[in-house]
Amino acid sequence: MNPRRKKRLLITSLLAVALSLAVGLVLFALQQNIDLFYTPTEIIEGKKETGIKPEVGQRLRIGGMVVQGSVKRNPESLKVSFDLVDNGGGIVTVFFDGILPDLFREGQGIVAQGNLLNATEINASEVLAKHDEEYMPPEVSEALVGMDNFKANNK
Q1: Which residues lie on this side of the membrane: Cytoplasmic?
Q2: Overall fold of domain 36-144
Q3: Is the pTM value of this prediction over 0.85?
């Protein structure tokens, strides 16, 4: 192999390694920012299409209805826990340390973002309540159709 070809091969190889490293770093950075949406039943039983369950420690979003009588507040701090349910019957407990939205109440549809502690518990870093009587994210709306307290959107 002549020196010119060796030089081209070396440069091409270095570029391929650098590109692979850059792609790997980008994917690693994005992995930490991707939040997957689950319902309580999907967390317990897995996604319908794939059967894939979230892993303990995984960052995710969960949507459902706050179970009546499940909200427990710590009188000495902002810590609160409550149960979420969907039409599949799965119940997941959410722990949150912070100020809940003004529209948060029992029987209300909410979305919580946080990390999965175990198969039925989530440590939420953020809790979102729907902002008016009509709007609800499509994923939550689909998951809650058939619930007693839920009125589906009329688009």
Answers
A1: 1-8
A2: OB fold (Dihydrolipoamide Acetyltransferase, E2P) (2.40.50)
A3: no
